[in-house]
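I'm stuck. Protein, please.
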Amino acid sequence: MRQEYHKPVTAYRKKDLHTHTCASGHGTKDRITDLAKEAAARQMEVLGISDHGPASPGSAGLSYFRSLFLCDRSRFGVKLLYGAEANILDTDGRLDIPDDILRTLDYCIVSMHRPVYTSGSAAENTKAYIRAMRHPNVRIIGHCDDSRFPVDYRLLAEAALSLGVTPELNNVSLLPDSYRQDCRANARCLLQACQTLSCPIVLSSDSHGRKHIGDMSAALELLSETEFPGNLIL
């Protein structure tokens, strides 16, 4: 029988922690204010700003992330959280944002991006993710669905569960024009591992700019197809 989610579909669109502004250096000219206005228009409750770490070409420097704790916590009636999508630099799990700055942020997403991270084997990439998850304030594993960075989903989900980190089901990855590779098949493997281990997941838009914030449509479609338990969706 098809899975019935424990809360209305619209509830999953009211909170979005993976979004980007112009500070990420690509994909948009929108600022935090622009995203907050759009979030208010879409009746969202929580908006998380998570710009790319400074190792990404064109991204803001460390001073930007160091200053985020000074920003308004609410705009246009929307609660704002300030985080970062830190780059994993190597198989040792080093990140491009130091721990003293991570501690001032509300959360941190860790991801692998070209050309910052040179992909290794599935074992090496999984080890890199697990080591990165041990950093203070890391809360989410970003788009671990790209075959250019193969991983062992069972080991990744086990580590996430033990370390209190949440794997992400990334909406952009599941779109037909996604530049990432084999994301739908890999996302199915991730969901299967998470369901087996009762490991929660989080839905994210990965919107660059205001246009797609809160859009979880592709992710929700896959969750329905796989009958993923609603009680494991944060």
User: Anything to note?
Assistant: The chain is about 30% helix and 15% strand. Helices lie at 32-41, 62-67, 99-102, 122-132, 153-163, 183-197, 217-226. The radius of gyration is 16 Å.
